[in-house]
Structure formats: C-alpha cells, structure tokens
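Tutorial, part two.
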Amino acid sequence: MASGKEIRTKIKSVQNTRKITKAMEMVAASKMRKAQERMKAARPYGDKIRQMAANLSHALTEYKHPFLIKKDKVERVGLIVVTTDKGLCGGLNTNVLRLAYNQMKDWEAKGVKEIRVTAIGNKGFGFMQRAGAKLVSHVTQLGDTPHLEKLIGPVKVMLDAFRAGELDAVYFSYTRFINTMKQEPRVEQLLPLTGERMGAPEHGWDFIYEPDPQVVIDELLRRYVEAIVYQSLAENMASEQSARMVAMKAASDNAKTVINELQLIYNKTRQAAITKEISEIVGGAAALE
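Running the prediction step on this input gives:
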C-alpha cells in the first residue's frame, strides 16, 4: 500500500487537474453561447440560398454555369474537411475524420481515381497528412470566430479545379450542431448543384434576370459557396464548444470521484498507521510490567 505522503501528492495533483478542467468547462460554456447564436443566425440565410441555387439547376436560361453541370462519370473528387484547431472536445474530430476517411475508401472502391483534400482546422490537416491524402490546400488557426476571408483562398483551389474540369464533384465534411449534447458528422455534396438532392421542384422554370443571367447567376453561386462554407464552419465551432464543455464537465466529475476514492484510501492508511502505533505502545507498556 502507498504511503500517506504519496497519496496526499496524488490527491493534490488530481485537485490541480480538476481546477483546470473546471475552468475550461466554464470558458467553453461562455464561448458556446456565442457560437450557437452565430450559427443560428447564419442558418436562415444558408437555407434560403441553398433553395435558390437548387432552383437554378432546373432553370431554362441559356447560360449554364459550370457549377450546375453534372458529370456523367465521377472519377476525380475534391473533399473539404472541417475540423477544430484544438483538442479536448471528446470524439468530435474523431467522428468526422472517421466518416471522411471511410467515404474516401468508399469512393476508391467505386472507381474514383483521384481524391484531393482541403483541410480546414489543424486536427484535420494533421490527420490527412498522416493518412497520405493528397492535400492541395489548408488553413489553420481560425480562432473562435469564423472569418470568410481566411477560408476563401483554400476553398477557391477546389472551386477553380472544378471549374477547369480537373474535378468531377466536390464534397465537404463537417459536424452539424443538433443540440448541446449531440453533434452529427456529415459529408455533403457542394458541387455540382443538383435540384433533386436539394429539394428543388423538377419542372422547368426560370427567374427574370436583371441585368442579364450570367452576371446574376455567377454572383449568386459565388455567394452560395461562401454561405455554405461559412455556415459549415459556424456549425463546427458551435459543436466544438458544446463538445468541449461536456467533455470538461465529465473530466471534472471523474476527477472529483478519484479524489474521493484517494481520500478514502488515505484515511484508511492513516487509520492503519495510528492503530499500528497504538499497538506498539500497548505492546511496549505490557513488556515493561
């Protein structure tokens, strides 16, 4: 059995760890509220522009944007993976990276010859490097607030490749926020836009464009991509803070349980030492009689 001094040292160490996890839990709870408000504010715009972009896939305009042209055979795919920069958020990154990796293996099994990856977040960047994926762009150190100007460069690499015909489809993988206790990893198609996938009506129809279809559609689809990427990052950040708060709360609760167990062991050890000393004193006194 460990000595009383060793047990006291362990108790002190766990108490210090609990202070850290408790502080991180409170910080995550504070950031979580702001992240959830930001994410919820972005959802209506993102949903509406998805619907408008989906309607364009069935429009009868003479101008057909490259983002709306569906390839007959998909052999080259781009994947944008959204993860966090920091850890200590439970299985959040593990779940989304496992889903993305399994999807890549599934594509390869179906005959996809090339998969290009854009990593948003340090965890995804490190994982894809270790997995030997073909990384074409990445961005890290995003902070606690999504900034579109930091994302445009890495994502534009994928968009330019699709526009140039080097990619047949572009997907993005992120974690969608459901509630504080549940976050859902997803892989969704970004390009090409297909009305069936996005819930658009199948009948042909069109808008009235001013000044002309090309200018309006080009600007709308650019805004569509920006909105989807921004929203996915906002969803991921809200999920990150929620998962970190839950993970740190669990860590604090576990630390408290460990402290109680160590305290009980310490009390038993101390009581055993006292009993031993009393027995020795009584034995010595009996020997003197």
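Residues 196-200 have pLDDT under 50 and may be disordered. In part three we will examine how such features are distributed along the chain.
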